[in-house]
Amino acid sequence: MRVLGVDPGLTRCGVGVVEGVAGRPLTMLGVGVVRTPADAELGDRLVAIEEGIERWLDDHRPERVAVERVFSQHNVRTVMGTAQASAVAMLCASRRGIPVVLHTPSEVKAAVTGSGRADKAQVGAMVTRLLRLSAPPKPADAADALALAICHIWRAPARNRLQQAVAQHSLKHPPKGRT
Questions:
Q1: pLDDT tens-digit profile of 88-132?
Q2: What is the pTM of this model?
Q3: Starting from the edge strand earliest in sequence, which strands make up the sheet with 2-7, in order?
Q4: Of 85, 96, 145, 171, which sits 20 to 30 A from 118 (CA to CA)?
């Protein structure tokens, strides 16, 4: 499976592509950051993020896009920008028919490091180790994007089994009033 991980942000939107399957060594195919100037108009920044994500989708042709789920932060302005960048990434993927999966920061940290409370340095160190890189990707947004892709690859088999079980249960036990 080839996954584009997106760590959304208005100033720095981390992107990283990882290929592989759960239980086998993974391969990094690309990592980077889509940057926008902090003093640019919001609309221009969102267009720049869209253009950057579209280039990554064109260049790497992922089968899935894993985006960090936006959570409530103390700084409403920061969370709004993150949510807007997240929506752009989801739109770009959905427009192409590429499934989008959202993962919480603690879910990603737990998958990659074993602790949902890991700091950025721990995430970077584990991404470096798991992908057999010579150094942690910089900035941390790039490492976080790779961590999102790794998390999805590792968790996809369990998610698929759960979805199949729910579907089978629904077939055997349809809601009352339906046949």
A1: 999 999 999 999 999 999 999 999 999 999 999 999 999 999 999
A2: 0.88
A3: 27-35, 12-19, 2-7, 64-68, 100-103
A4: 85
To the query of whether residue 39 is one of the catalytic residues in this protein, the response is no
Please check whether residue 6 is in contact with residue 13, taking contact to mean a CB–CB distance below 8 angstroms. yes
Active-site residue, selected from the candidate residues 41, 59, 63, 68 = 68
Q: Are strands 27-35 and 12-19 parallel, antiparallel or unpaired?
A: antiparallel
SS3 172: helix
Identify the active-site residue in 39, 107, 141, 144: 141
Mean of the per-residue pLDDT values of the chain: 91
Rounded CA separation 164/124 (Å): 33
